[in-house]
Amino acid sequence: MDTRRTYLDWNATAPLRPEAREAMLCALDRTGNPSSVHREGRVARRLIEDAREQVARLVGAKPAEVIFTSGATEANNAVVRSGWNTVFAAGIEHDSVLAPSGDGGARRAAIQVAANGVVGLSGLDTDFGAHSANASAMCLVTLQAANNETGVLQPVAEIAELARKHGICVHSDATQAIGRVPVSFARLDIDYLTLSSHKIGGPKGAGALIVRDGAPLARWQTGGGQERGRRAGTENVAAIAGFGAAAAAVHAELPEFGRVALLRDRLEHEVLRMSPETQIIGRNAPRLANTSCIAIPGRAAETLVTAFDLAGIAVSAGSACSSGKVAQSHVLVAMGLPANVTRAAIRVSIGPATTEQDIAAFTAAWTDITRAVAKAA
Ligand code: PMP
Description:
With 377 residues, this protein is an alpha/beta fold. The chain folds into two domains: 236 residues, Type I PLP-dependent aspartate aminotransferase-like (Major domain) (Aspartate Aminotransferase, domain 2, 3-Layer(aba) Sandwich); 120 residues, Aspartate Aminotransferase, domain 1 (Alpha-Beta Complex), CATH 3.90.1150.10. Helix content is 37%, strand content 14%. It is built from 13 helices and 15 strands. The strands form four sheets. The protein has a seven-stranded mixed beta sheet with strand order 2-8-7-6-5-3-4, with helices on both faces. The longest helix has 21 residues. The protein is globular and about 65 Å long. The structure holds 4'-deoxy-4'-aminopyridoxal-5'-phosphate (PMP). The site of 4'-deoxy-4'-aminopyridoxal-5'-phosphate has 13 residues, from α3.
């Protein structure tokens, strides 16, 4: 990475780990197709099965429950499009969950979100009961483990317990949670879990869907018999090997997150000291140690992000600029926050390799940038 840059956008993608790079380089030199029965094929197959074990171990799943995909988007799409009558989802979910949630005639039922970003459980028992009263109705509840913009953690275990009572299947998108908080597929006792490689220091374009044996799953990519017939197509062996290596490495790194939380707290403390009007979104909710969603009401997030970029610092905005207009973050809108906040929030996300100097670079740039953006507004 360019040493003159300060990279504070780990939720967009984490830097590639040396272990993942090494595993990928080794895999690239293996010629065999993992479906071939000869020795070259068996060597490639071994790489995939080793990675399957590493990924399964990270999330407390059985290797046979792991289906490798091209990433979390594919895994989320596959679950949500599996022939449901009703899909329960909150407005804070990732677009790869929300966009397909009405496909195939499914009805989308909303889960409420409180202003601190945590979904509300009250009323859900009744809603679940109403939609699952017909024994042949296929219902899914999908709830992310941690939000990508705010880092807020969701009560997946509680929702799962409630859903099970009504025979409703449960999916959790754990893309932002894995490697940062313990996630156990077995302990959550859910049907589907989504993972992505590049958020934990593996390569981009790889991920996994963990599926409980017997859970409904429509075939979304057919042809060959790869992934036990559940996802056809010759596997991306190098990317899968890199994902496996990253999963093994991140497992050992969880204790580092105590230090990450201290850095995040220092950054927030400094920002609030310099600009008391700042809002830290989800601050009072349980949240990931690495994520800060920061808004100065009324400032355009895109302008802040560009100014930080020019100052050598990579952060991101939940909102994206479309046709010259600053869009709102759909996550913050779902939390019921006002437009002067939903258009203003920037996300700072860090990781175990983040240093005190990185945080100091951000806070040193903060005053000049926020003053300049205030003047421009
Ligand atoms: N879900 C969440 C919560 C995410 O943060 C992301 C990536 N921004 C995705 C899904 C999509 O992941 P991928 O890039 O692997 O398709």
